[in-house]
Design goal:
Distance between the termini: 40 Å
Number of helices: 10
CATH class of the domain at 7-166 and 198-225 and 282-289: Alpha Beta
Number of strands: 10
Helix content: 25-40%
Order of helices and strands: HHEHEHHEEEEHEHHEEHHE
Bound molecules: S-adenosylmethionine
Strand content: 15-25%
CATH architecture of the domain at 7-166 and 198-225 and 282-289: 3-Layer(aba) Sandwich
Largest sheet: 10 strands, mixed
CATH topology of the domain at 7-166 and 198-225 and 282-289: Rossmann fold
Oligomer: single chain
Shape: globular
CATH superfamily of the domain at 7-166 and 198-225 and 282-289: Vaccinia Virus protein VP39
Radius of gyration: 19 Å
Length: 290
């Protein structure tokens, strides 16, 4: 099965993801004075959404390592950074590879290594304390991949699992088929998305259970998308969201396609002509050793 993520969709999400992210990590960093000398390793980085958010929060890692197995997404990191930080940071690349240097006006540098690799097999050799992040990824992962991810916490490191989909989508106004469609959507979330059979929204409880067993501390915060069809960008995004749901579910065994079409047409009509709001549930989970 093709588990590749669409570059246009991942790039479109950056704005909505960044608005949704909780302050759980920034508060932790402030409280523990981790600003100095911190390194970041962003696994399943896609097109660099998490680094963009971190820089916008004033987190400027000395070194960042961004890992993903999709070269097409990795190649858009530079342009996304440039687009988001025009006149704020200088972003230079080495012509021979994907790596970047981000410099601020005082010539402080952040060296960004961009690595095309499978996150399950990627070995972290960094000896400096670091934050390991997985953004919008944990619900795509299998039990064994989550076990590997949790094993990456060493003494001083922090693991930050953000935008973990919790299986709940609420539309206002709702439609009588919303529940039916969501039940198939959540079933679809358990298909292979790059790590074998995914846990979907159940990954959140799995991480909580494992954290307890491993005696890790865990902090949890909500980070939902709350999107109303206000601007033309919102309308484009919401139409893409329902269209992707329709496409994903259309060939699933057992689905009633006429109900799916009806649901889709109703949503498109509401997004185009009425006021409609969607809340897509996510959680941010921060884990560290006691
Ligand atoms: C939903 S996207 C999230 C991207 C990014 N973290 C963000 O927040 O926009 C999931 C990412 O996981 C990557 N991925 C899936 N399986 C992977 C694997 N086994 N190793 C590395 N990356 C993987 C995909 O290429 C994709 O970029």
């Amino acid at each position: 099965m093709d588990s590749k993520f669409s570059r246009s969709w991942i790039n479109m999400r950056i704005h909505y993801d960044n608005m949704a992210r909780s302050r759980i990590l920034t508060e932790f960093i402030e409280k523990n004075d981790l600003y100095k000398n911190y390194h970041m390793i962003d696994m399943c980085t896609g097109s660099g959404s998490f680094l963009i958010w971190a820089l916008k929060q004033g987190l400027f890692p000395n070194r960042a390592i961004l890992v993903d197995n999709d070269i097409n997404l990795l190649k858009s990191i530079k342009s996304n950074l440039r687009q988001n930080f025009k006149n704020i940071y200088a972003i230079k690349s080495n012509n021979n590879n994907l790596d970047l240097t981000i410099s601020d006006k005082s010539q402080q540098n952040s060296n960004v290594s961009i690595v095309k690799e499978n996150c399950d097999t990627y070995e972290i050799n960094d000896t400096q304390p670091h934050i390991i992040s997985y953004s919008a990824a944990i619900d795509l992962m299998s039990k064994s991949s989550i076990d590997i991810c949790l094993s990456k916490i060493k003494r001083e490191n922090i693991l930050f699992l953000s935008l973990c989909f919790d299986g709940k989508v609420k539309w206002k106004p709702s439609h009588p088929y919303d529940k039916y469609i969501m039940s198939y959507f959540n079933k679809h979330q358990s298909y292979d998305k790059g790590f074998g059979k995914a846990l979907g929204y159940k990954s959140i409880d799995y991480v909580k259970k494992k954290a307890k067993e491993l005696e890790y501390k865990i902090k949890i915060a909500d980070s939902p998308w709350i999107i109303q069809n206000e601007s033309s960008d919102d309308i484009i995004f919401l139409k893409r969201y329902v269209s992707d749901i329709k496409k994903s579910l259309f060939h699933m065994d057992g689905i009633d396609r006429s109900m799916l079409r009806h649901w889709y047409n109703h949503k498109i009509d509401s997004i185009s002509n009425k006021i409609i709001k969607v809340q897509v549930g996510h959680k941010d989970l921060l884990l560290y050793k006691k």
